[in-house]
Write a structure and sequence with these properties.
This protein is an alpha/beta fold. The chain has helices at about 60-70, 85-90, 125-135, 150-155, 155-165, 165-170, 195-210, 225-235, 250-255, 285-290; strands at about 5-15, 20-25, 30-40, 45-55, 80-85, 95-100, 150, 175-180, 185-190, 215-220, 240-245, 260-265, 270-275, 280. It has a six-stranded mixed β-sheet with strand order 9-8-10-11-12-13, with helices on both faces. Strands 4-3-6-5 form a four-stranded mixed β-sheet, covered by helices on one side.
Length: about 290
C-alpha cells in the first residue's frame, strides 16, 4: 500500500491551562528512491539515481520533473515507463521506490550517478559557474512571452493557493507551488514537505501533458525563492516567478540572466520586484506603488 500524505499521531498539547492528550495529523515525510533502467553498449543496466525525502502523492510527476530539471531527459518521450516497485523488489518499501525505464536512444553519462546534482554540480563554487551550468540546458525561447500583469493579479495568489492547499489545511506543514495563467486562473497546484519537490511535481505534470515550455504561465512559491527554484523555472521556460518569502542573491542573478520577472515578499497588497519590471502594468498610481520595494 502506498504511503498516505498525512499521518495520524498522538500528542500532548501544553497550554497555560494545562495539558491534554490529542490525536492530530502531520504531513507524511517518506523517502523516494529513483531507479533508472537505461541502455549501454553492453545492454540494459539498472542503477539508483537519487533518494529524495518527499510527501507521498504525484510521485510519477515528481520523478519526471526531477529528471527534466536535472537535464537527464528533455521530453516525456525519453521515458518508456514509470512504476512503483513491488514489495518483493524492495524488501517492503514498494511505495517508496520508483522504477523508471528510459528510452534506448537516451545516452546517460556515468557521472549523473554521483551524489552531486547533474545541473547544479557547480553550485557553491560561484554564482557565475552556477548560472553557466543552467544556461547549457535552457532551451532557446520560441518567441517572446506575452505575460503582462497588474499588481493586483499577483496579490491575489496567496489567498487562492491557501484556499486550495488540502494537506496544508489539516497539517500546516507543507510547501506549495502553483501555476497560474496571466488572467489569474489557477492551473495546477502541488504540495510537498520539500520546496524543490513541489516545483518538480508541477514541472513533471506540465511535461507529461506536453505543455513545456511554460511561456504563458506564472509560478507561485509559498516560501522563499532560492537559486535552485529559479533555475527550475528557467528550465521550464517560465517568465514570472513570485514567492511569499525572500529571494537569494543568486536567485536574483539567475532571474536577471534569463529574463525572468522575480517578485518576493508577496502579500495581499504589496510585493517587491527584483527583475523583469517591464512585465508590470501600471494602470494607476496605486498599482505603480504596489510593485515597488517596501
Amino acid at each position: 500500500m502506498d504511503p498516505a500524505p498525512v499521518t495520524a499521531l498522538r500528542l500532548l498539547k501544553v497550554t497555560q491551562g494545562g495539558v491534554a492528550h490529542l490525536e492530530d495529523l502531520v504531513a507524511t515525510e517518506e523517502p523516494l528512491a529513483l531507479r533508472l533502467g537505461y541502455s549501454t553498449p553492453l545492454g540494459r543496466e539498472q542503477r539508483e539515481l537519487a533518494v529524495t525525502m518527499r510527501t507521498p502523492g504525484n510521485d510519477f510527476e515528481l520523478a519526471l520533473g526531477f529528471l527534466f530539471t536535472e537535464g537527464i531527459i528533455t521530453s516525456a518521450a525519453d521515458v518508456l515507463s514509470i512504476r512503483h516497485c513491488s514489495d518483493r523488489e524492495t524488501q517492503g518499501q514498494a511505495g517508496n521506490v520508483l522504477k523508471i525505464e528510459l528510452s534506448d536512444s537516451l545516452s546517460l553519462p556515468r557521472h549523473i550517478f554521483q551524489r552531486q546534482s547533474f545541473i547544479s554540480s557547480s553550485c557553491g563554487v560561484c554564482g557565475k559557474a552556477s548560472i553557466e551550468a543552467v544556461r547549457v540546458h535552457v532551451p532557446a525561447p520560441a518567441g517572446a512571452d506575452t505575460v503582462r500583469f497588474h499588481a493586483g493579479l499577483l496579490n491575489a495568489f496567496p489567498g487562492t493557493v491557501s484556499a486550495q492547499q488540502r494537506v496544508f489545511g489539516v497539517t500546516g506543514g507543507l510547501h506549495a507551488a502553483a501555476l497560474f495563467d496571466d488572467a489569474g486562473s489557477l492551473l495546477a497546484l502541488r504540495e510537498d514537505v520539500g520546496r524543490h519537490n513541489a516545483v518538480d511535481k508541477l514541472i513533471g505534470h506540465a511535461l507529461s501533458q506536453g505543455l513545456l515550455p511554460l511561456r504563458a504561465q506564472i509560478l507561485f512559491l509559498s516560501g522563499r525563492a532560492s537559486f535552485e527554484l529559479v533555475q527550475k523555472a528557467a528550465l521550464a521556460g517560465l517568465p514570472v516567478v513570485c514567492s511569499v518569502g525572500a529571494p537569494s542573491s543568486l536567485a536574483v542573478q539567475c532571474a536577471l540572466e534569463f529574463g525572468i520577472t522575480l517578485a518576493g515578499f508577496l502579500r495581499e497588497n504589496r510585493f517587491n520586484l527584483y527583475s523583469g519590471q517591464h512585465r508590470l502594468l501600471r494602470a494607476h498610481p496605486g498599482e505603480a506603488r504596489a510593485g515597488t520595494p517596501s
